[in-house]
Design goal:
Blueprint: E1 10-11, H1 18-40, H2 49-71, E2 79-80, E3 97-100, E4 110-115, E5 118-121, E6 131-133, E7 136-143, E8 156-161, E9 168-175, E10 180-186, E11 195-203, E12 215-219, E13 223-229, H3 261-264
Parallel strand pairs: 7-13
Antiparallel strand pairs: 1-2, 3-5, 4-6, 7-10, 8-9, 8-11, 11-12
Helix pairs in contact: 1-2
């Protein structure tokens, strides 16, 4: 059921936002310009070029680190992480600090809908709760054939569940007078790789039997329709057959045939 976000843990030398990084680099460049001016005026400029370049490299690294620590002590040299989510959960050892969060892989879902988009990791183990939405629509029609064109049931209810039917997800959806139940904002895949969801019918109308088992639907399109069989109820009926001329005399042995007039035509 859950989104799967895959990736490789990586490090990057950065401080805060892009704007903050630009400020640091701008400050360093101003200092480098001053160092270069002083060097070119020196009488030793052409003698110690190699020494100067090594010193310049050292100054760049030192200044970048010092400015980052001074201006953004919480962030510092922060690590970036790609956290894999399997069946709705994942974990990662992280450095304390503020992080921006985005979904980079979530088949069936709208990655731009991730919420929230930031997370603060503390010095103790915490759990960050995120949600992500989808834009698919699944229509389930319950009728007497389990295929297009069958006589629909007139009422009932159905709910999304896990594969066992023990855990329910989201609200119970009513089945309308046309046998239709609509699930909005469901995840979807493609014809080659459908997104599988599970459902359980809870009730039907008075004349039909519910579909007893949990049923799976592979959603391969953004809009999809499925058909589920609800058979007519068969209820025990009792009959008597007596002699028409001798009141109360039971007929010893006979067979009566009942034909459904709705099916005959």
């Amino acid at each position: 059921m859950g989104a799967k976000i895959t990736g490789v843990k990586c490090k990057s030398f950065s401080f805060g936002t892009q704007k903050q990084q630009n400020f640091i680099l701008s400050t360093i460049l101003q200092k480098l310009a001053l160092y270069y001016y002083i060097f070119t005026k020196s009488v030793f400029a052409f003698i110690f070029v190699d020494v100067f370049m090594w010193l310049l490299t050292f100054v760049i690294i030192k200044e970048y680190y010092a400015l980052g620590k001074k201006n953004y002590p919480i962030g510092g040299f922060m690590a970036n992480y790609n956290v894999t989510i399997i069946n709705g959960s994942g974990s990662q050892t992280m450095e304390a600090g503020d992080y921006s969060v985005s979904a980079i892989y979530a088949p069936g879902y709208d990655m731009s809908s991730l919420s929230p988009t930031s997370y603060t990791a503390s010095s103790t183990s915490e759990t960050g709760a995120f949600t992500i939405g989808a834009t698919g629509t699944l229509t389930i029609i319950f009728n007497e054939t389990g295929a297009q064109g069958g006589t629909p049931i007139t009422s009932g209810s159905v709910v999304m569940t896990d594969s066992t039917g023990a855990t329910q997800y989201g609200p119970i959806i009513d089945i309308d007078s046309n046998g239709t139940a609509t699930f909005n904002n469901v995840p979807f895949g493609s014809e080659q790789s459908a997104y599988t969801l599970y459902f359980k019918q809870l009730t039907s109308d008075e004349n039909h039997n519910i579909y007893q088992n949990v049923f799976a639907v592979g959603i391969g399109d953004q809009t999809q329709t499925e058909y589920i069989l609800n058979t007519l109820k068969s209820v025990l009926q009792n009959f008597t057959l007596t002699d028409a001329n001798y009141t109360g005399l039971p007929v010893y042995n006979a067979v009566l045939q009942f034909e459904n007039d709705e099916i005959e035509g």
